[in-house]
Amino acid sequence: MTNLPKDELISRAQSNVKSGRLDEAIADYRVALALDPLDTWLHMQLGHLYYRKADLDSAINCYLSAAQIHTQDGFYSRAAAIYKVIVEIDDSRADIKDTLHGIYERLGLDYISNQDMINWQAIIRQLESEDKLIEAIQETETLLKQDPDHLEVLIKLTGLYFQVGDRERGATCFRRAVYQMMKRWRNAKTNELLVKLDEANPDNHVPLVELIGKLGVRLKSIKRFINDYFPNRDPWENERQMGTRDVESFRREYIGKVNMYLRIGLTPGDAFRKIKEELAEREKEYYRFLRKHLPESRLQGLH
């Protein structure tokens, strides 16, 4: 058992992943997890690595732990997203499907069952054969309301939008699908989506592979900005003695907000702008706090 702190273990694990040393990375993540058993991010990283090694039982166990912690903390949407990944890995898990039903009821959504998918696919095939694409879009949009993150339905709706020439909604749907795939590390699905988009929109001049690459690069730049802002540019850091939250919790909060904005279809650029607006308001709140609580003599020179 190493005596390294958690952040150093994570850093070493990430280096091992980049070098292809998955077993060493798993070992480091497990030690880090022993230090903080409620860290859902660590559970998910372990699950991803086990999935890459085709150890599906271990992957499911890690994902399940993360989902259960999110459920206990009241983050039901996050838990549902993880439970759906488990069902995609092992469709025989009736217990997970029952849990998903319960979470979806709590969220006011309807879980899309296998039978729902079979019925929808049959309807869409019939409508497409009759060249009723608008009706096909309406059916697909209705199904997507039950589960806004359902990847297969998002992919199909993206293609339908492009087929009828609705590029704006097609692009929004595309970004939502790409976000889901990036979140799940599903490269095969990414390739499938690219093929479907090219088939649906052959006159598209935007190189889609390049677009996905740019999305990934832009997301990294946003995360770098947030990681630098806390603590280097956060004015509230000056009041750390007041018992404000730790730096890492702020980073996770704002990166979580970026993910939320992407989930609803915003571009990375729009998500970045919204984050900057929120941080600007955070800075205004700090100066309002100073004006209220500090004497005038201390306020001079702060502007």
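the 2nd protein, sequnce then structure:
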Amino acid sequence: MKLRQIEVFYAVYSSGSMTGAAKMLNVSQPSISKVLAHAEQQLGFLLFERSKGKLISTPEGHTLFKHVASVYQDVDRLRHLARNLRTAESGRIRIASTPALGVQLLPAAIATYRKQNPGIVFEIETLHLEEIYNALTESRVDIGLAFDPLGFPGVEQRQLGSGEFVVIAPAATTFNDASSVDIEELANHPFIALNSRGPLGRLLSTYLATSDAELNVVAWTETYHIAKALVAEGAGIAIVDEITARSSTGGATKTFSLRPTLGFTVAALHRSDAPLSITANNFVSQLQTSISEFLN
């Protein structure tokens, strides 16, 4: 039996009439009669006896209905599941983010998304880029969120936004009342440096190598928010991404534009052979919006 024939048989058996079945399925009575006749012809036996304008199930019809009811319920559950997936009413999103993006930007995006999608559950990890790639390839997470990710086999990326590096300094610092500074102007200040293990560290290391200025490095750190906290405590000056600089964590600092400019990107990552669900794709779009709002 075809699915449509199962639906019609179930409706006629349950309602006891062609009219009732037509109302259940929101179709015309003649179409119900036609589908039922085709089903009986293909089966080779009658499903109902017509008696005084009523439909009475045959013994074969009674036996068949026991199995059809189970199939019909499975199909109905499948429809509900498909509708939930399509409308993103529920689900789980597993995401791994680099620490700098996971401190404020990611939580804000999740909070905003869940206001419209309260049935979504998130699993969150903060990892460095190499660890994010491993988590993706091991299928431990659905989405990776990182700065300037390098290409990695089997992983696709979608750019969500871009920003610039900035100079952060203790709140009382001035550079002759200028709003932007260059590397040479930092040489006379204690400098908090980022190591070159991560993408931003590599970008900044290459940038600094173009200058002849010798910076007075007093501390190395791999975590941008630690660099910001050190600056807020007066330990020195640092160059960080503007997402870290704009975040409310890490203490009060003063921000200056870096001259010449140095840019970075933020990207969402996922496995090439595991397309994102509608729910996850919608959240990636929310991330893109949140990054744009945060930087503007």
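The domain at 162-264 is CATH 3.40.190.290 (D-Maltodextrin-Binding Protein; domain 2). The chain has a mean pLDDT of 90.
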